[in-house]
Amino acid sequence: MQKTILIVGGSSGVGLELAKHYVAEGHRVCITGRRDPHLPGAVFFSLPIGASADEMLSGIDSLITVFPGVQTLVYSMGFLQRGLIDALDSQALLTMTHVGLVAPMALASRLKPLAPTPLKLMLVTSSSQYTPRAQEPAYAATKAGLGMLGASLVRDSGIGKVLVAAPSGIRTPFWSGTDEDTSTMLDPGWVAKQIVQLSSGAFKYRYAKLLRNPARVEVVETLDNSFAPIT
């Protein structure tokens, strides 16, 4: 059955690999990101997620109008600025907060009442979700918040199943311009394949870590459909 899938952060990396998979399966796919990947069979929408909350929220409202009927939200967008907290300027802090947390919350709040079926969420976080790092205070905080957002939304009876996937470093353009050694990082195609597998089947909530050296999946928690939401 054809599904309508919105992938936020689909210009490259895991988001793009997931988009390729779902397009190949015949689903209706919309990609947002920093640039158009020109993926045949997918729609691209330029969504401004940055320091300006007004522009971001206006863009989200426009996106929902242009691409209606979303059944699955895949959120894989990331933004990283490293430095101790006093070295991060206000624009960096606002952008990280908007990209990492405000945008997925705003999307979920708008998509839930419009979805033709209970909205399914696939939230791609990071090992920073559970690993504190002095040079990534805002990034780690937003990733932890995104994971908790998923764990909280699953307790909403109006939400469908929720997957939170936390990869541990992926070889993508995300690291361009940094001195990060990506040689041991996870392949985005492999990560996307694991996310597809983790999201399949009957469950209400699943949280998994995608680890490296060696590449492997650790399912931390799964709640089945008999889970009674806490209201």
From TrEMBL:
Pfam families reported for this sequence: adh_short
Residues spanning the membrane: none
GO molecular function, one term: oxidoreductase activity
InterPro entries (alphabetical): KR_dom, NAD(P)-bd_dom_sf, SDR_fam
Keyword Oxidoreductase in record: yes
Gene Ontology annotations for the cellular component aspect, listed alphabetically: membrane
SUPFAM superfamilies cross-referenced by the UniProt entry: NAD(P)-binding Rossmann-fold domains (SSF51735)
Annotated ranges, domain Ketoreductase: 3-173
Keywords from the named record: Oxidoreductase
Family listed: Belongs to the short-chain dehydrogenases/reductases (SDR) family.
Stored PANTHER family: DEHYDROGENASE/REDUCTASE SDR FAMILY MEMBER 7B, DEHYDROGENASE_REDUCTASE SDR FAMILY MEMBER 7B
Record-given protein name: SDR family NAD(P)-dependent oxidoreductase
Taxonomic placement: Bacteria, Pseudomonadati, Pseudomonadota, Alphaproteobacteria, Rhodobacterales
